[in-house]
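User: My advisor asked me to double-check a structure prediction for 2-isopropylmalate synthase before group meeting. I don't want to rely on an old file, so could you generate it fresh from this sequence?
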Amino acid sequence: MLQQPHTKYRAFAPIGLKDRTWPDAVLTRAPIWLSTDLRDGNQALVEPMDIARKMRMFEQLVAIGFKEIEVGFPSASQVEFDFVRKLIEEDRIPDDVTIQVLTQAREPLIARTFESLQGAPRAIVHLYNAVAPIMRTVVLGMDEDEIVALATSHAAMFNDLAARQRHTCWTFQYSPEMFSGTDLAFSKRVVDAVTAVWNASPERKCIINLPSTVEHSTPNIFADMIEWMHRHLARRDGIVLSVHPHNDRGTGTAAGEFALMAGADRIEGCLFGNGERTGNLDLVNVALNLYTQGVWPGLDFSNIDEVRATVEHCNQIAVHPRHPYAGDLVYTSFSGSHQDAIKKAFAARREGDVWDMPYLPIDPKDVGRSYEAVIRVNSQSGKGGMAYLLESEYGIEMPRRLQIEFMQVVQGVMDVAGTELSAANIYALFEREYGLATVQALSNRVLEAQADASVLLRGQLHWEGALVDMQGQGNGPIDAFIQALQEATGHRVRVIDYHQHAIGAGADAKAAAYLELRVDEAQTLFGVGLDADVISAALKAIVSGLERATAQGRQGAQCTVVPA
Ligand code: KIV
Ligand code: ZN
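Assistant: Sure, here is a fresh prediction for 2-isopropylmalate synthase from the sequence you gave:
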């Protein structure tokens, strides 16, 4: 790279529109959307779509709700021509959808384009020619008058050819290609000349589409250019003002949104930003940005994964995992502090509340995503994420100190494995650590109330490979069990804290008990018990804790330190 890039590159000159209004504009309604996936998007593919893939894309676009769809460049190839014919001849175009086709300003291509549209009920025919100085002087070798003549003479052909196909309801569209790299006064001159030829009026509007064929400037400058055209174009009330941003600087979405604020009525782009080089403006992005501002975009992405799968199939290009709204990872937080905030905000949220979630600008459910992916656990995660997964997937509501204790186990595994742990992985660890599947309930349990208000507990317990008879008396079942346990095993257990809740409802409901125990005055740790019976769950939790303590004792652990 150059140390002095100004010797090679020049800054884009600002427009200097001093009385611009767009910065204060608020978008309160959806624009007219035009998908050019089947034209500009398709032109950019390594392997352009065949007819089957084009049809699949067309049907997907219709299902999303697009009413204007650029279906191809019929004079460019036989496939393009045949696809347009197929749509018309097989009556595939819904009554509320208008197809659009592109043609260069060249006589035989325009004739072939109109031929492809024979029998269409409605159609937008899209004419373009380059207007930027670099194209005019170097590529076309024309002066400004010649460019105006090129545009108007071919625009006039539209009038003639359309008059010969009267059964079709025609809309004409003109794009001054490379508008963003062209002097505004000249763009206006060419566009005004074209709209004069087409006799644009409120009754017979044409579409003027202003492309940033190459994105040259910051999006505010593009917005100034659009506002300038919006204010200065002749026959403005006979024009649907459209924009067609590309994304060379990575600001296509911003440019499109600013352009709408600056007076554009219509916007062209592709799903997930496919298109030449860095792509066209991403229509999903703009539509869902509007949605998150409370504006119905008129495009339905309730099942964004299905849309993504179709587009990936048709384009043979994967959507990036970080792609706004659609990527695999965009609703996922790995960071512990983010997870904690999300978990708390979900708990505080009530049905009907306005959406205000940390780290989640949209409710994943609105685009057909589950909350499953919201929190995932890797080495960056904290206890909050792990606890969230166990709660949301398995109904386990761990008390905070248990979360801290168990997170050490999770972290230990993560440090060795180095990979992400799924909810199922974490539950398997939890089950193993607290003996959920192995700790047995006290069998043949008898609980008798005594005259002095205490209870007498009898039963049999599997302890260290043998079935041991037990008996104890205390001020409740837990107290009695602890007495019995001390006599049978020699271990003294003290309950420090006790939490319990139900998992599920009805006949399948289970009780979960989490007991923080002090064992032999040497170790403080948790035991966990799950059982259909509340008392059994608590007694199992005590055995779970005692087994963990003795196992840790065997491994030489003195005590499990649980920070407050
Ligand atoms: O980017 C562009 O300039 C185009 C025109 C044909 C509208 O795609
Ligand atoms: Zn384009």
